[in-house]
Amino acid sequence: MSTMVITCESCGARFRLDSEKLDKPRNKVRCSRCKNIFMVEQPDEDGLIHIEISDEESAFIPGTIHEEIGKAAAPAKREGWSLKKKILIVGAAAILILLIAAFVFGPGRSLLFSTSKSPPAGPAKPVITITDSVQAYYLENVHAGQVLVIEGEVLNESSQPVSFVMIEGKLFNSKDTVAQIQRCYVGNAFTRKEITNLNLSEMQEKMMNREGKNLKNVRIPPAGKAPFMLVFHNLPEMSTLSNYSVNVISSKFE
Q1: Over the stretch 222-244, which tens digit does the pLDDT of each residue have?
Q2: 200: β partners
Q3: Domain-by-domain residue ranges, the chain?
Q4: In this structure, CATH architecture of domain 128-253
Q5: Among 45-54, 59-68, 90-99, the range of highest mean pLDDT
Q6: How far apart, in Å, are the Cα atoms of 235 and each of 67, 140, 151, 239?
Q7: From residue 9, how far is each of 31, 35, 50, 128, 221 by CA, in Å?
Q8: β-sheet bridge partners, residue 44
Q9: DSSP states along 166-208
Q10: Residue 101 DSSP one-character state
Q11: In a 3-state reduction of DSSP, which class is residue 109?
Q12: How would you classify the pairing of strands 51-54 and 14-18?
């Protein structure tokens, strides 16, 4: 029995093969390592072995190659392709990471931190206070009977002239509940004679004169003062009233 050594040209593995198993001039064999099928011819008189690769996977194989000699490296062509493929994969991953980083950390974006600007502060509001000169008293009106008058002054504590200051007065009953509300613009003071003789509609109209009498409610200078007067009518029983309040509710820089 003669033994021959053949090499699989697909994976490079080397095998010993009994030449007596080659019963034909050309025989198909399968590599037990990579399953490649190729043709092996019986040795010539000079001992040369002919090997031919075949792609016919379903071909009948009379014998199998089962004894591998050593470990042959994969063909250079396959190694080159594998390395190239790895380089392409790594390169694509790097590009993807760069694109994600550019999107996340690009202009106007931050992954962990964000900054916000505080909204710009609005214009300062006028500072108007009511002086300690406030007083309240009852008078008799010829048309409506008893009325309650609250009068006083406002002071412009702003650094600019102020106009159209409005005052709101409230009357409270013994349960500290609001019993009546009245409003007026600053600069519309009445004489006691006017309070006694004016009808209610005339009095209300004069109290709501926005510019004030003789424009006293227009461009009140810094540290300047202006009078106000609230007249309450249709009053509840005097015994039920306990307190009152006066507040500035609107004003405007000029």
Answers
A1: 999 999 999 999 999 888 999 99
A2: none
A3: 3-69, 128-253
A4: Sandwich (2.60)
A5: 90-99
A6: 122, 12, 17, 11
A7: 10, 12, 12, 102, 107
A8: none
A9: EEEEEEEETTS-EEEEEEEETT----HHHHHHS-HHHHHHHHT
A10: H
A11: coil
A12: unpaired
